[in-house]
Amino acid sequence: MKALVTFVRLLVGILFIFSGLVKANDPLGLSYKMQEFFEVWQLHGWNETTLALSIFMNAFEIIAGFALLIGWQFRLVSWLLLLLIVFFTFLTGYTYITGMPKNCGCFGDCLPITSLTSFLKDVVLIVLILFLLLNRKMVRPLLPAKMALLSMSLVIIFSFGFQYYTLQHLPVVDCLPFKKGNNIIEKRQVPADAIPDSFAIRFIYSKGGKEFEFSQLELPADLNTYKFISRKDKLIRKGNAEAAIKGFDLKGQSGMDSTLQVLQQPIAVLLIGEDLKHPSVSWTAGFSSVFNTSKQKNIPVYIITGQAGNAIQITGGTAYASVPVFTCDNVTIRTAARSNPTLYIIQQGTITGKWSGSDLGKAEKVLTGLPDMPPPAPVQQQPTDSIQ
Predict the structure, then answer these.
(1) SS3 170
(2) How many CB atoms lie within 10 A of CB 142?
(3) Could you tell me if 190 and 243 are in contact, meaning their C-beta atoms sit under 8 angstroms apart?
(4) Dist CA 103 CA 26 (whole Å)
(5) What CA–CA distance (Å, rounded) separates 383 from 388?
(6) What is d(CA 201, CA 244) in angstroms, rounded to the nearest whole number?
(7) pLDDT at residue 385 is higher than 50
(8) CB within 8 A of 18, min separation 6: which ones?
(9) Which terminus of the chain is less hemmed in, N or C, by CB atoms within 10 Å?
(10) Is the pTM of this model over 0.85?
(11) Rounded-to-integer distance, Cα 38 and Cα 133, Å
(12) What are 246-293's pLDDT values in tens digits?
């Protein structure tokens, strides 16, 4: 029995550490997922707290998982984990039953799992933690008290420090569709081998005050005695015919779509941010250097944001006031820019470099090593959108 308790303790501890690390790699991702839940529940006032909640929750999973591994404060930690997993089970069960949001984000974007799998995983964890609580007398600390306290302190520092790093410098492991090496043009298209949704046509008729539903093969011989009400398409099999990148449509002041004109440039620089007026880091000085280097090499630069007016206001009167500003779907921008802003270097749509607003100096060094380009053709837009 003691061996079984040890195995379960190690399994649960490792699962929580893994879950916390995967989400700590991208705390903004969990923050946005929390906002989806709050939007569904119409708790809009909580949206400002989601990043702090995300950071704390990720850190707690790592810290509590490690505490479980070494047997530190075992009874307290087990009860806290039980409360946490009960809460998670409610969320995953809600997602599975209602389909809202689409998934719970339990393992972040690096390991997407279905809502049913998430729910079943949490149910199993409840059983395992209850098993540990019932057999807690068999658990002994693995480290002396002082060594355990030192280890826990280091894990706490790491749990919060790692998330601070990823918020400042982008996720260490990029699992998003805008990761380096991906071609945005290709990712905007549905894969050729994708399976489309399968629907069955159903016809609704009424007769004698009752409604009947038939498929095409079930239509009765005396159909002329029925009254047609409506037709509906019933989903019988969910496919996977979705593009990895949706909503990346660039529009300027004129409202014209300039997406392909931008993405098909031999080399281009994209500065992407949700609202550049409220950056999480100071980026203007670094961007000025990036712009000057790009201009010397005839490499076009574009700004993509959800708040075009704010971007134009910030750039007005600067050396880069001529940079074209495009708007894009805000959800897509959040996916593309895990730092506000995020800078890309693309070559014919392929992402060859990606940096946070804190690392624009690194982007400039890469630009310096690129070959000079012939003057780019202007994007067909209003004057505010054309390359000067």
Answers:
(1) coil
(2) 13
(3) yes
(4) 16
(5) 9
(6) 28
(7) no
(8) 65
(9) N
(10) no
(11) 32
(12) 999 999 878 889 999 999 999 999 999 998 877 656 788 899 999 999
Beta bridge pairs of residue 304? 272, 326
| 297 neighbors 364 (Cβ within 8 angstroms) | no
The residue type found at 184 is I
190, two tokens: 């549905």
Is 325 in contact with 382 (CB distance < 8 Å)?
no
- Residue 103 falls in which region: left (phi positive, over 0), alpha (psi -120 to 50) or beta: beta
Burial profile 367-384: b = 16 or more Cβ within 10 angstroms, e = fewer: beebeeeeeeeebebeee
> Is the sign of the CA dihedral 69, 72, 74, 77 positive or negative?
negative
DSSP H helices in 48-144: 50-70, 74-98, 115-134
Residues paired with 218 in a beta bridge? none
Sheet holding 210-214, edge to edge: 210-214, 198-207, 227-237
Among 79, 75, 50, 81, smallest CA distance to 63 is for: 81
CB 22 within 8 A of CB 173: no
In 3D space, the residue among 191, 187, 158 whose CA is nearest the CA of residue 335 turns out to be: 187
- The values of phi and psi at residue 194, to 5°, are -70, 150
Backbone angles phi, psi at 186, to 5 degrees: -70, -40
**R_g over Cα of the chain:** 26
Q: Which segments of the chain are extended strands (E)? A: 198-207, 210-214, 227-237, 268-273, 301-305, 325-327, 342-347, 350-356
Cis status of the peptide bond prior to 101, with omega within 30 of 0: yes
Spell out the domains of the chain, with CATH numbers in brackets. Answer: 2-169 (no CATH), 198-237 (no CATH), 259-385 (3.40.30.10)
pLDDT tens digit sequence for 70-116: 999 999 999 999 999 999 999 889 888 888 777 766 776 788 888 88
